[in-house]
Amino acid sequence: MLLRLLYRPAGTTTSPGRAWTGHGTRSNDTMNIVLFLLIGGIAGWLAGKIMKGRGFGLWPNIAVGVLGALIGGSLFRQLGIEMHGLIGQLLTATVGAVALLWLAKLINKT
C-alpha cells in the first residue's frame, strides 16, 4: 500500500489534497479488454459477411477483428483519417479486417 501511495505513474493526476492510491484502474483495464474483444468479434463477423457471405465462428471472428483493428488503425493513421467513438472503432476494425481477408484471399490464389 505504501508503494502505491509513493509511486504514481506518469500522466496520473489527483485532486488537491488527495493521494493517488492506484485503485479503480484494474476494472477499467478489464472493461477495455472486453470491449476490444467484443468490437473485434463484431468486426470479424462483418468482414466475413462482406468477403464471403458468412462469419467464421466466435474465436476466428475475434482474431480477424483484433488483427483488423491493428491493421485498420495503422492504415487510417497513414492516411490521416481519425475515427472516434464506438462506431469509429468498429468501422476501423472492420475496414482493417476486410483488408486482411482480401490479402489472405490474394495470397491463397497464387
Shape: globular
**Major sheet: size, sense and barrel closure?**
none
SSE series: HHHH
Structural class: mainly alpha
Provide the β-strand percentage band.
under 5%
Please report the distance between the alpha carbons of the first and last residues.
59 Å
Number of helices: 4
What level of helicity do the residues show?
A: over 70%
Rg (C-alpha, Å): 19 Å
Mean pLDDT: 80
Number of strands: 0
Low-confidence stretches: 1-8
Describe what you observe in this structure.
This protein has a domain at 37-110. The protein has 4 helices and no strands. With 110 residues, it is mostly helical.
Helix-strand blueprint:
Elements: H1 2-6, H2 25-52, H3 58-79, H4 85-109
Keywords for this entry:
4 helices; 110 residues; 73% helix
In short:
With 110 residues, the chain is an all-alpha fold. The chain is 73% helix and 0% strand.
